[in-house]
Every structure is written in structure tokens, then in C-alpha cells.
Amino acid sequence: MGNARRLRAGLRGWGGVGAMATVCVLALVFALVLTRAGSPAAKAPKTPEAAGHTVTDAIGADADAKCTDPEKQTLPPSDEDGVTIDAIKNRPGEKRKLIVGIDQNSYRWGYRDPNGGGGARLEGFDIDLAHRIAEDILGDRDAVQFKAIPTDQRISAIKDGRVDMVVRTMTINCERLRDVAFSAPYFRTGQQVLAPKASSITGYDKTLADRRICTAAGSTAYAKLEEDKAAGRLPKSADIRTTVPNQLDCLVRLQLGEVDAVVTDGALAASQAAQDPTVELKGDAFTTEYYGVAMEQNAKDLLRRVNRILVDFREDTGDGWQKAYETWLSATLGSDPAKSEPPAPQYLRTS
Question: Which residues have C-beta within 8 Å of that of residue 129, sequence separation ≥ 6?
């Protein structure tokens, strides 16, 4: 089933993957392992690459110096295994699972349904995607170990080796590319304001003056508020000091009256509004952001494989992206998935 999906995706693609030249082996002996994981696969699909983008063999520490479109700073898809995937496949016995960092408190994304079998089973859009990745790599959609990771620990969990990847509504940006690698985008969203329906706040504007705003620590929302306040785009009297480990904690603070508004991704805010009918989204999204699967920078074979899986996930009209959207998100984001669909991916050149 996985081979058939990849064949179909290779023919049509997600906008396709460009013709690639064989990577010239110029590395020193110690780099041979990395080359194996990062070299283009002989059977990689061929589509146009992103014009003007080049990469040596690292997306790493200096990525932000040349990063203008972070959602394009990823490697072309490949089905080829490498050292990272081999290590996952060679885990002994019951440990032969993909270890994925997720959220268990984001309604419709990654959460435990209190009405579903005692609340033991994790469900949501991100959970479906994690199962799809495990199915492709290990041949079993249930061969996945989920680890709940707070918002502010997503990057450290990857760098410390606690997880193989994070599938947790994680926005791709240039700053994070210094520490982790990202797949191609799998979802489009933007920052929005969430506040009580009775509030006079109208959106991301002057009505936030003298208001207490909550964001998750380490989130792109906080970085945006900090930047805009310094630049005068956000009222200087807006209080942005309240940060929490997990985004859902902001909703709790809002319900308790400890803050006046929450700023977060619109996709998450819509789910929170669905949980609490006394709050609503205020105004339009004021940024455009993309979610990606995050993993260790040197895990290039895993990065390429995830990008291959995302091509298939998007193209699979029976059990792919469209079905996951309809199942989990249409009730909160609307019946038209086009607003949340990411653009056709573009990839870095490898030579």
C-alpha cells in the first residue's frame, strides 16, 4: 500500500520535485555518515526546484543568515533509507517505534477525547499525520510512541534526542531553523486574537492598549508581540508579560479573568473558541505562517522521507490531508480547506 501511494505521488506530486544532480562527495571521512543520510536517492521524483535556493550539505546553524522564506528551507523528497531511519528500524522488540513529540491538550489537533474509551486514545490532525509517518517508515501506523511536549520544550526535546520528531502545530521560522530542520509545510495559518465575546477588543489593533495578553513561552506569537511593541505597531501599554508553558493554559487564564486576550495561531484559537462559547476570534489573522514537522538537523534521510510522505498525504484523496481536515478541523475552521492548504512545496537544491 505504501509503495502504491508513493508511486502515485511520484507521478503527480505535490507540485513536484525538481531534477537533481548527484551530490559530489567532497566531505572528509567523518562526514561520510551524514552524506549517506543526506544524498539524493536514485529513485527520487523529478520536479522543478525552487529557483535561487542552494545548500551545501547543512540546513544548520547559519540558516537564518540566508533565510528569507523559511517554509522553503527543506530538502527534496526521497524514499531512501539512511542512518537515522535505519536506527529507528533497528530498535529492539517493543521499542521499534517512531518517537513523536505531540500536544495532548489542543482540541482537534492533539488531544485526549474524554468520551473516547476512557480518554486514553490521542486524536486529532497532528496525531493522524504521525500515524501516517509511522506507517510509511515502519509498516505499522500504530508503531508510534507519543510523548507530550510543552510548547517551550519542542526544540530541546529534539536536540536532546528525546523524540525523533515533533508533530505539534509548530510554525516554521528562520530562528528555529538554527536549531532544527523542518519538513515542507503541511498547514497554513496566521496569528489571531482570542478574547471574550463581551470584550471591546476588536482585533490586533489599538483596542489592545492597556490590555493583558497571554501567549505561550517560546511561541511565534510572543516573538511577534515583542517585535511589534518595540516597533510601535502594538500599543506600548499592552502588557505581554504573561507567558505559559502550554497554549491551552492561556485559555484558562482568560477564563479566570487573569488576562484580557490571547494571541495564538488562528487554527488553535478556533479550536479554543469551540471549547468555550464565551470567547471568540477578534479580527483577521495578521500574519501568515506554516506548520511543519520538526526534527534533528543531521537527520537528512528522515527529513527527505517525511517530505515524501507529505507529498503522498496531500495527494491521497481517500485517506489523506483532505480527510484529516474534514474529520478534525472543518467544524472549527470551516468547510473550505483551501484557506488552510499550504502552497505547493519548494525545496533547496543539493548541488
Answer: 167, 186, 293, 313, 324
Cross-strand pairs, 214: 242, 262
By the 8 A CB rule, do 264 and 291 touch? no
Grid cell, residue 82, equals 539512511
AA identity, residue 103: D
Say which residues have a Cβ less than 8 Å from residue 29's Cβ, sequence separation at least 6: none
Q: For 157-169, give one letter per residue: b (16+ CB within 10 A) or e.
A: bbeeeebbbbbbb
The one-letter amino acid code at 149 reads I
State the pairing for strand pair 165-166/98-102.
parallel
- Could you tell me the pTM of the whole model? 0.82
Cβ–Cβ contacts within 10 Å for residue 18, how many? Answer: 17
Sign of CA dihedral 198, 199, 202, 204: negative
State how far the Cα of 218 lies from the Cα of 226, in Å rounded to an integer.
12
Instruction: Look up residue 112 and give its amino acid.
Output: R
pLDDT in tens, 58-74: 455 444 456 789 999 99
